[in-house]
Amino acid sequence: MYREEEWRSLAGAAQHMDDDTRDLRAQWREGSLATGWAMPHDWWTPAVEQAIKAVNRGHGLTRACMALGDARARAGVGIAEGMTDLAALFRLLGGADPPLAALRSFATGWAEAGFAPIGELRCEDPLTGLVSVAYLRTRLAEIYREGTARLHGLVVVTVTVADTWERVAALLHVAALLREVFPLGDTLVRLGHDRAAALTTRPRTRRLRDAGLVEVVALPDRYRDALATLSLWT
User: Which residue from 32, 66, 60, 22 is spatially nearest to 47, judged by alpha carbons?
Assistant: First the structure.
């Protein structure tokens, strides 16, 4: 476990890295990939920048590691892979292993984000019986890590009724239709207050056209871009 003065020494080492040849972010990413990070394109997250700032400033380590753990869990990254990634950062700074406080903070952030949604994932949306957006994020992470994202698409149905109660009835109708059209294990999800969708390899739409505005969306090449697209609907 690093003492405060040791951590500040490591921070000083990071500050004096040659920007041209040893950019901390790039070196961290490369080190993580070399030790088993599965998908290069899903490594970056704003929490990476927060961790780098903590390194350069010499304080805020606990908060930064907790944020990183939270981000990794929400992206569907396992705790072992996430901690290996964190260790790659500390190896760059001349340390053998992350300090216990950093690991504990990372694990806390991962658990709070990773375990809390599990309750949501096991509980269907109480109105429609469709799965939650949290589940869809996890499912997307899985297919991107498997390399099968290009085989999938989202069939999104938007209810265009303005009246609240009519919209609720229309959403229930859409949910029932999705179960009929996609009965073979596709991921059926409620997106916000006026949308539902199916993550599927078979983008059937004919029976859904009278239920609302139907759109078939191909998944982008990168998981990060898929989450950005998802955020537009939720």
Answer: 66
